[in-house]
Here is the input.
Amino acid sequence: MRPKLAFAMAADKTRHVFDAEALDRLAGVCDVVRPEPLEDFSSAEARAVLGEINILVTGWGCPMVTAEVVKAAPNLKLIAHAAGTVKFTLDPAVYAAGIRVTHAADANAVPVAEFTLAAIIFANKRVFELRDRYRADPSRRSTYALMDEPIGNYHRTIGLVGASRIGRRVARMLRGFDFTVLVSDPFVQPGDPVLAGAELVDLETLMARSDVVSIHAPSLPSTRAMIGASQLRLMKDGAALINTARGALIDEAALIAELETGRIHAVIDVTDPEIPERGSPLYSLPNVFLTPHVAGAVGTERLRLGQMAIEEIERFVAGVPMEFEIEPALLERLA
Here is the structure.
């Protein structure tokens, strides 16, 4: 008997995750009970769907899968999350009920790593400052002056804070450049593959030696504000800080204070709160390139998320091991 499947996510946030081709592929292994995603589990219609299904595909905007939801879905065997973190989506009751969980964080890591690589290259080249100088001075005198300073991407040191899946992907990408790569992560031991072409150091050493510091650690109580005033003061004059991980990892007040000196610059994709308050200096400081949490999958990049979820569902239905199953013990260390 073919498993029955439904979706739970915000339709306006998940456009492109499952296109027509992806839905046809899913229909090859499952009976899709309802093609439109559930955005609320409380209605009678939603409870009827939950009572039927064996597989629930979740995504951005999915309502919390609570103990009550689990109780309403007695036949549910798999939750396939077509996005990154599931930490704020699943109640512990999911695992207690023996429901297996997989996610597409590895697919979301691809565009984040690509964004990070571009940010590293642009930061070392001082591209944003050169753009601003050129706009203000079309004679190019000021841009030529900056180009004579020791900027660029040759023999620079890149520090990666956190050997997460994204951090590891970035480390692999950096092997093709003339960079010295430093990694700081308390869980990395000598011999770890991430250290092929990289040096393991403590956080303070990384902050002091790096021309670019890129943050890739998970957001945990132990990592909150791990980059504070003392760490920022260690950065070289002219160095850059890139954050595509979580805003809470950086003491934002300390970062703004350091940026206001003009001594360092930053590429910031994530903040805490998620949207900075109106009037925040992050919007106006000339040495800040601020983006609205776009490093992850956007537009057609979201197709990777759906594809990875489908591949995991196909493995599950075939009775073979899934590649990205989340074990309960690992949940706390995930981003």
Observations:
- The chain has a mean pLDDT of 95.
